[in-house]
Design a protein that fits this description.
Blueprint (H helix, E strand, L loop, with lengths): L1 H6 L29 E3 L3 H12 L3 H8 L3 H7 L8 E3 H9 L2 H9 L1 E3 L1 H12 L4 H8 L3 H9 L4 E3 H13 L9 H9 L2
Length: 187
């Protein structure tokens, strides 16, 4: 596999290790408005490490990082390999770590969009036990969300519900970002 990865190496001076991270260290080439590219080498390994230490689904990592699930999937070997990725995606992936993901478990957000997603999952025929497992919540909390009786849930439950809707191709409930943002603005 490393031989095929070597064939994909681009002639660029910016590699994952060369992108500084941390407070105040966002280089100009990683500005969100920038459309530059970096070699994709190393990002798959970073994602596999996060998958191993967190036990999270790859779609959850993509959503948490703010990177396209298609990009993350391809970095992990689904589909045609990526030779390069956008610098903004590179920065977002490098800044994602186990501690940030753990903070999402503690951070409370509005539950309206999550409740709609949970109802959509159940109405699509997904078993309650499977939805509980995918969202990593108990039966009681799932039923509160489905009934719309939960005002808040963790940011991680929101992300897991979105990832689950993506996984089950419930596209009408994937693009519910406006509701997510309105809930955040009202807090």
């Amino acid at each position: 596999m490393s031989g095929s990865l070597s064939a994909h190496r681009l002639s660029t001076s910016v590699t994952p290790a060369a992108i500084p991270t941390g407070p105040g260290s966002i280089p100009a080439h990683c500005h969100p408005g920038d459309h530059g590219w970096v070699s994709s080498l190393g990002f798959g390994a970073h994602l596999r490490h996060l998958l191993a230490v967190t036990g999270l689904d790859w779609r959850v990592l993509a959503i948490a990082a703010g990177v396209s699930p298609r990009t993350v999937g391809r970095l992990l070997g689904a589909g045609r390999p990526l030779r390069r990725i956008r610098t903004t995606d590179a920065r977002r992936l490098l800044l994602l770590d186990r501690d940030d993901l753990a903070l999402l478990e503690a951070r409370q957000v509005g539950a309206a969009a999550t409740s709609r997603r949970v109802r959509a999952l159940l109405e699509s025929g997904q078993p309650i036990g499977r939805v509980c497992a995918e969202l990593d919540i108990g039966h009681h909390e799932l039923l509160r969300l489905a009934a719309g009786r939960a005002a808040h849930c963790s940011a991680m439950v929101r992300i897991r519900a979105l990832a689950s809707c993506q996984n089950h191709r419930l596209w009408a409930h994937v693009d519910d970002e406006e509701t997510d943002e309105a809930e955040e603005a009202s807090r």
